[in-house]
Design a protein that fits this description.
By secondary structure, this protein is of the alpha/beta class. It has two domains: about 180 residues, 3-Layer(aba) Sandwich (Rossmann fold); about 80 residues, N-(1-d-carboxylethyl)-l-norvaline Dehydrogenase, domain 2. The chain is built from twelve helices and eight strands. Helix 1 packs across helix 2, helix 8 packs across helix 10 and helix 8 packs across helix 11. Bound molecules: nicotinamide-adenine-dinucleotide.
């Protein structure tokens, strides 16, 4: 049974995961290499909780109890010591994930469950850093974690069925819904999303409709909360291109990035973050 969770990496995803874990009743430690990041996470978590209290979705007492269950730590061996479960959310680089997992092997109990929030890397490869790969699986949260309901639970080559069960149970206790997926590039969501986004670019390239009308069609006709171009502007066209290149390399021709998307990236139209993507901001 899982009582304590350590979240490794307190960035965009890590702080939201730690908030969810503390709210779910787990003794939670949030670890990062940077004190500054941890301080920022503390303020972000306070703001998320305060907003929920203001909206009447959370009682002040429950928020206080959750806060009391949450520690912010910069000592990795102390963070991992005696913990029941590890959720890794460090940057998306295999070398980094492997070195973090080596520390997990060194300092965490041998039977701790280990989950990675990777968006695309191979869980099977990441878990090679641990002697018991049966206890490792993917636990793919969505951004922003406190608002998004889904967790994709990803079964790697050696993941034990019990590991999948435990991770699903933890996700549920954090208020999430889960889907089970066999490890595969892009899981379910990124793969479908990249395909829709790429198809939208092909339609724009072929002059089938304007970007505004393609977005409007998917929102009003298919009930998507955002149009594919609004979404790609938010995600970053460069990020989307790298996802498509990865899917193209792994899964074949139907994921070949649309030439218009490639041109936009070459032109520096990377999305909202630079003030222009498909749209101007
Ligand atoms: N951002 C998203 O929308 C999103 C969605 C789903 C999954 N993910 C995945 O989640 C993971 C984290 O992404 P993010 O967007 O939160 O990244 P981020 O860059 O916002 O945060 C990563 C954090 O890890 C810290 N860090 C770096 N090296 C570390 C180490 N050795 N030990 C502990 N912490 C370390 C950094 O200081 C930083 O605070 C990635 O694998 C990413 O693919 C991201």
């Amino acid at each position: 049974m899982i009582r304590s969770i350590v979240v490794l990496g307190a960035g965009t995803m890590g702080h939201g995961i730690a908030y969810g874990a503390a709210m779910g009743g787990f003794d939670t430690r949030l670890y990062d290499v940077s004190e500054e990041v941890l301080e920022r996470s503390r303020s972000l978590i306070n703001a998320i909780g305060a907003k929920a209290v203001e909206l009447g979705k959370l009682s002040p007492n429950d928020f206080e109890s959750a806060r009391a269950r949450l520690d912010f730590v910069t000592d990795l061996s102390a963070a991992l010591s005696g913990v029941d479960m590890v959720i890794e959310a460090v940057p998306e680089r295999m070398d980094l994930k492997l070195s973090v997992f080596q520390e997990v092997e060194r300092h965490a109990p041998a039977d701790a469950i280990v989950a990675s929030n990777t968006s695309a890397l191979s869980i099977t490869e990441i878990s090679s850093a641990l002697t018991r790969a049966q206890r490792v699986a993917g636990m793919h949260f969505f951004n922003p974690v406190h608002k998004m309901k889904l967790v994709e639970v990803v079964c790697a080559l050696e993941t034990a069925p019990e590991t999948m069960d435990v991770i699903e149970e933890v996700a549920k206790q954090m208020g999430k819904e889960t889907v089970r997926i066999k490890e595969s590039p892009g899981f379910v969501t990124s793969r479908v999303n990249a395909m829709i986004g790429n198809e939208a670019f092909y339609m724009l390239q072929q002059g089938i409709a304007s970007a505004r009308d393609i977005d409007k069609a998917l929102k009003l006709g298919l009930n998507h909360p955002m149009g594919p171009f609004e979404l790609v502007d938010l995600v970053g066209l460069d990020t989307r291109l790298s996802v498509l290149e990865f899917l193209h390399a792994k899964l074949g021709e139907k994921y070949r990035p649309c030439p218009l998307l490639v041109e936009y990236v070459q032109a520096g139209r990377l999305g909202k973050k630079v003030g222009r993507g498909v749209y101007e901001y």
